[in-house]
Amino acid sequence: MKVFIIGLGLIGGSLAKSLRKSAFADEILGFDKAPENLSYCIENHIIDRSVEILTGAQEADIIILATPVDGIIELMPLLLNQLQDQVVVDMGSTKRAIVELAAKHPKGKNFVAAHPMAGIENSGPAASFEQLFTDKVAIICNPEQNDRMPLNLAKLLFKSLNMKLIFMDANEHDRDLAYLSHLSHILSFSLALTAYNVEDKERNIFNLAGGGFASTVRLAGSSAAMWNPVFLQNKANMLEALELYISNLELFKMHIQNEDKLGLNQLMEKSNAIYKIINQSL
After folding, report:
1. Where are the alpha helices (DSSP H) in 83-201?
2. pLDDT score of 218
3. Strands 137-141 and 111-116
4. What b/e readout covers 54-68, taking b as 16+ CB neighbours within 10 angstroms?
5. Final residue of a domain: which of 137, 168, 199?
6. What is the separation of C-alpha 37 from the centre of its chain, rounded to a whole number of angstroms?
7. pLDDT band, very low/low/confident/very high, at 198 (cuts 50, 70, 90)
8. pLDDT higher than 70, residue 75
9. Does residue 40 share a domain with residue 141?
10. What is the pLDDT of residues 207-266, one digit of tens each?
């Protein structure tokens, strides 16, 4: 099995390490537009060889797109044009636009739209590690659009990563992820900006930021190159989620302004109940 990974950041690097350890891949080829990422992956034996995109697409049995989602949109048609029997799998955090694009291509049935629900706030291959995907959820969207062989190969790929596999419609995926993943990143970025605007002295941020603040802004360390296109590709759902969040902030603001202890308690107790439900599922 020859695997070609396009995009050698946190996800791509972790994939290479995991697929090598599981023996899913006999040879791992890689490409990244950042020369430093390629050099790091070669020097640290994360990939076996670096190749250009068209060369890797022709050589590989399975091609994995681990780029930001705008890169997936750009590269997918180019890769599908090169296919014989190869399979292309993406790792993007949005799915609707990607699935719709694949459906229009004559070889789109060889493209599997996937989203491994795994990640940390750090980026780049130096942050990659073998266990990133272990016991996490992998989502395959609109599997009815796939031929049997590509779908089965993608299932084997995620099984080798020790992931739990679920299937979703792409529209449902994007709406749910707007609330359960994408919004939390915007909130983290926003909170970090808010604190920085008020506390412009780095010393105070370092000394006074407590555990609650640190855990809440953890995602503010995430890559802008990755999350910018996610927010824009999922624009409609993000705007809906933000409107609802802003309305909840306005409720807190109103109760504080009115010194309404009962109103504040009701909001926080409802949040406590929802937290318990979420925490039980984790």
Report:
1. 96-103, 148-160, 170-177, 183-198
2. 80
3. antiparallel
4. eebbeebebbbbbbb
5. 168
6. 19
7. low
8. yes
9. yes
10. 555 567 777 778 888 888 889 999 999 999 999 999 999 999 999 999 999 999 999 999
Token duo for residue 196: 């920085």
Q: Indicate the burial class of 159 (C-beta count within 10 angstroms; 0-12, 13-18, 19 or more).
A: middle
Same domain, 158 and 62: yes
27 bridge partner residues: 2
- Which amino acid does the sequence have at 134? T
Angle, to 10 degrees, between the axis of helix 148-160 and the axis of helix 10-21? 90
Range of the domain at 192: 173-281
Q: Which of 68, 14, 3, 13 lies closest to 38 in space, CA to CA?
A: 13
* CA-angle at 172, arms to 169 and 175, nearest 5°: 150
Residues 20 and 44 sit within 8 Å (Cβ to Cβ): no
Q: From 168, 186, 202, give the residue that closes a domain.
A: 168
